[in-house]
Amino acid sequence: MAEVRSWAPVNEAPFVSLGHPPGNQLASIHVSPDAKETYQQLLPGATLPVGAVVAELQQDPASGQPGLSYVMTKLDADRWEFMLVRANGQILERGDVPPCARCHAEATSDSLFGVPAGG
Questions:
Q1: Exposure winner among 28, 68, 99, 109, fewest CB in 10 A?
Q2: pLDDT in tens, 13-64
């Protein structure tokens, strides 16, 4: 997670995360350097390279303390691994997490929703 946190966020400013619990956290999106440009211009039909990592890092809006991280790693052309990680690096869930896979199956492109408007 230290490497993911070192990548500059792709969104201009933190946004309220409505797609991931608890639903009131500020979030920033971090993308591995090999996939950042494609993610920033995500259009229908676009795909990220195998090995790409996309992470939503949350923080508490009142205290600014880090919260949960939601991480996706592209395993092959059509499959992603999902992880739910605590701020201390503890992995809570990893793999084909059904709620994650179900929601991201409805995404704009390559199981991704892209940067929120104004984000």
A1: 99
A2: 999 988 888 778 999 999 999 999 999 988 888 999 999 999 999 999 999 9
Residue 59, number of CB atoms within 10 A of its CB = 18
**Domain map (residue ranges) of the chain:** 2-104
Classify residue 49 by burial, with Cβ atoms within 10 Å: 0-12, 13-18, 19+.
exposed
d(CA 52, CA 83): 14
* CA diameter of the chain: 39
- Measured CA to CA in angstroms, residue 69 lies from 11, 49, 102, 117 at distances of 16, 21, 18, 20
